[in-house]
Task: structure prediction
Amino acid sequence: MMNVQILDLKKQYEALKPQIQTAIQRVLDQGIYVLGPEVQKLEKDLAQYVGSPHALGTSSGTDALLLALLTIGIEPNDEVITTPLSFVATSEVISFLKAKPVFVDVDPQTFCIDPTQIEAAITSKTKAIIPVHIFGQCADMDPILDIAKKHKLFVIEDACQAIGAEYKGRKAGSMGDFGALSFYPSKNLGTYGDGGMLFVKDEKNFISAREYRTHGEYPKTYNHKKIGMNARLAALPAAVLNVKFPYIDQWNEQRREKAQTYYRLFEEAGLLNKITLPKVASYNKPVFHLYVILTQHKNNLIEHLKSNGIQTGNHFPTPLPYLECYKEAGYIKGNLPNAEKICSQTVSLPMYPELTLEEQQYVVSKIRHYYSNL
Ligand SMILES: Cc1ncc(COP(=O)(O)O)c(C=O)c1O
Result:
C-alpha cells in the first residue's frame, strides 16, 4: 500500500535546506528578530509581485484581515458582506469586532461569493465586502468592485489561499482597497510558523494600518496614538519566505500541471460523470492551493481513501454561519443552498508541487476502485 499525504512539507524543506539554514543563521547573527530588514525585503518584493503600492508583514493572515477592518473603522453592529465558504478566520475577524458578517451564497462554478447576490444583502449598516479567493481561484472581482464603488463600500480581498492567482491578469490581493495573504506552513508560500501580509491601496490607510500593527504607534515608540495590537511579522519566518518567494511561480505552475494530470487521469478512468472536478472560470488563472472534488459519497470516499493510505482534507464540512460559534447569531439553514450543497460534497485530494505522477495515479485508481465496488 502506498502512503500519500495531502501535503508533504518536508520534501520542500529538504530541497531548500542549505539556503534556509543560511538565512536563519543570518537573522540570528544580525540580532534583529521582529520586523527589520528581512520583513522590509519581503514587503517590497511582494508589493511589487502582486502590484500593490504598499505591503505590511503581519503575524498571520487573520491579523492582516483584522488590521484592514480596524483601519476602516469597523464598529459594533456594522455589517460586512462575505462568503459562507471559507476558513472561519474570514468571518471571525468581523465578529471579533462585534460587527455582523452577512453571508451571501457562492457561485457553484468557482465556489467564491456570487456577485449577483451581493446587492440584495446591502443595508445602511454595510461597510465592506470581503470576497475570498477560495482554494486558489479568484472571485469575480469586477462586478464586486463596481458594487462597492456604487455603494461606497470597502473591498478587502481574502487572498490567504491565493498568492499568485490572477483575475483577468491582475494578481489576487491587488484589486481591492486591501488584500490579505497567509504564510501558514501549508499555504502555497508558507513559512515555518505563522505569518501574513496586508496589501493596502491608499497611503493614508497604509499609514494607519501600520500604526495598528504596532500598538497604535509608528515610527516613534511609546507614542501610542490609538489602541492597536501586536500584529508584527517576525524576522525568522520572513527570512524563510525570502528564500522561498523566488520559487512561487514555479510551484504554482507545478500545481496547475498536477491539476491537469488529475483531469486526464479521471477522464481516462471514466469517472467524470461520477465526480465533479474543479472548474476554472474563463477569467481566472488559479493556483490550486487545494484540489477539491465534489462527490455524493463524501464520508465513505474519505474513509475508503484513508484505508488505502491516502490522506484527504475536508474543506469545509460546514458553511460558516452554521458553525457552533454562530449558534447565538441565529443564521437560518437553507438560505445558502449552493454553499450547503458544496460543503456536503467536498473532498480535497493530495496537491502540492512535489506530488508525483505515481502518487496521483494511485489516488485516482483508488477512487475508481471505490466507484467500481458500489
Ligand atoms: C481563506 C482563509 N482566510 C484566512 C486565513 C487565516 O490565515 P492565518 O492562518 O495565517 O491566520 C486562512 C488560513 O488559514 C484562510 O485559508
